[in-house]
Design brief:
Layout lengths: L2 E3 L18 H6 L4 E6 L5 E9 L2 E9 L2 H22 L8 H5 L1 H7 L6 E2 L2 H16 L9 H7 L11 H7 L8 E4 L4 E4 L12 H15 L4 E6 L2 E5 L8 E7 L2 E11 L3 E6 L4 E4 L2 E4 L2 E2 L4 E2 L5 E6 L2 H26 L3 E6 L3 E4 L1 H6 E3 L6 E2 L4
Parallel strand pairs: 1-10, 19-21
Antiparallel strand pairs: 2-3, 3-4, 4-8, 5-7, 6-7, 8-9, 9-12, 10-11, 11-20, 12-17, 13-14, 15-16, 17-18, 18-19
Helix pairs in contact: 2-8, 5-9, 8-9
The protein binds adenosine-5'-diphosphate and magnesium ion (MG).
Length: 371
């Protein structure tokens, strides 16, 4: 059984200094195609490749009968993923070529000054983010940038900021202060010093666009795994789904269970990837925009949705909202399955998720109200 781990993974929404230091072997493996020895039936083979993009390992796995088609499709899918990574990177320094290529840098640099014309996909990501900011009543907010920088998760400045410093930045947070013009495709941040951060949406969006490229190139069975943001095209076979492992937030070496997906995305947000501890308290990278502090209502949330971009957004939004509000919201939205893990070692699932999940036997969790 192929298992893909849907762990929350480091994203692009972090300070430069936090970039992952990868073992050389992984970097070298980055652009090498792997053809698995396994022949499923007829001439179908598995082709896969990995690259380090958006601060995480992105892997693309394709099943195909045609080697050239598979490898060409994977290359094109990575090109698309990379294009979106360059456009949405908010960390390049001003004056560098990378800064000039990033729409997010241009938007942030022109905060309080002027609207900026952006690429259609960047516009769509921001439009979607504004929509889900409203739907989640503020739990999801891409204007979290100044606070993310203040906390500096994973960087050299890992200390708990004072309440006064947090309070001083809160007026810069609020997606109502992001003005978008769908005709002109412009984005304007109304206050100077505002910063948008697409770290909670770009991996999911890019995975979806990469999967679309694979489909356009004639691939019907594939998985794009952007550091745990998993976007599945078709199933593993016509009759079998892909099986995705859900990491135990309290023990990185074990899974709480597995979930089956076919032609849909599974995305996890957790408190266990980017964090530091002070006096036994864990401070992690998913912030509650209403307080400016790490959200405490959950420790792991897995969302399944047909859109990988929406699943990515919702994994963060529902993490912040917590199980009480989040399960209701998922039900209202429809076509959204969610699994919550909370600090008191409780797993709570939407009814649709229960049908897709197999929990590991002997895990340390009890079940919330939906089980
Ligand atoms: P990961 O990037 O680790 O997969 P998420 O998708 O949950 O996890 O995104 C977290 C990133 O999004 C943070 O690193 C930060 O840049 C940004 N972020 C943090 N809190 C929020 C929030 N409430 N709404 C939108 N983006 C957020
Ligand atoms: Mg997310």
């Amino acid at each position: 059984m192929t298992q893909i781990i849907a762990a929350a993974a480091p994203g692009l929404g972090l300070v430069r200094t936090s970039r992952l230091k990868l073992p050389l072997a992984i970097i070298i493996a980055a652009s090498i195609f792997v053809t698995s020895g396994c022949t499923l039936f007829d001439n179908t083979r598995e082709y896969s490749s990995e690259r380090f993009i958006m601060d995480t390992i992105v892997s693309i796995k394709v099943f195909s009968e045609d080697k050239d088609r598979a490898e060409g499709a994977i290359r094109s899918a990575f090109e698309e993923f990379n294009r979106l990574a360059v456009l949405s990177d908010r960390f390049p320094e001003k004056g560098t070529p990378a800064f000039d290529k990033s729409d997010v840098c241009k938007i942030n640099d022109n905060a309080g000054i002027r609207p900026v014309k952006v690429d259609d996909d960047v516009f769509t990501m921001i439009e979607l983010s504004k929509k889900y900011n409203e739907i989640s009543e503020g739990a999801f907010d891409i204007t979290i940038g100044p606070l993310a920088d203040l906390w500096g998760f994973g960087g050299d400045n890992q200390e708990v900021p004072s309440d006064a410093k947090i309070r001083a930045l809160l007026p810069l947070v609020g997606s109502d202060k992001v003005e978008i013009d769908p005709q002109e495709k412009t984005v304007y941040l109304k206050k100077e010093d505002m910063l948008i951060d697409l770290g909670a949406v770009a991996k999911g969006y890019a995975a979806e666009k990469a999967a679309e490229v694979l489909a356009d190139k004639g691939i019907s069975r594939a998985v794009v795994n952007a550091g745990g943001n998993i976007c599945a095209l078709g199933g593993k076979t016509d009759s079998k789904p892909w099986v995705i492992g859900i990491q135990d937030p309290l023990d990185a070496s074990s899974l709480v269970g597995t979930v089956e997906v076919k032609d849909e995305a599974a995305v996890t947000s957790g408190d266990y990837q980017r964090f530091f501890e002070v006096e036994g308290v864990k401070y992690h990278h998913i912030l509650d925009p209403s307080t400016g502090k790490p959200a405490r209502a959950s420790i792991g949330v897995t969302v399944i949705n047909q859109s990988s971009a929406v699943a990515d957004i919702l994994s963060t939004a529902l993490f912040v909202a917590g199980p009480e509000k989040g399960l209701k919201l998922a039900e209202e939205l429809g076509n959204t399955d969610v699994l919550y893990i909370t600090k008191d070692k409780t797993i709570t699932m939407s009814p649709g998720m229960e049908a897709k999940v197999s929990l590991s036997s002997g895990n340390a969790f009890k079940f919330g109200r939906d089980k």
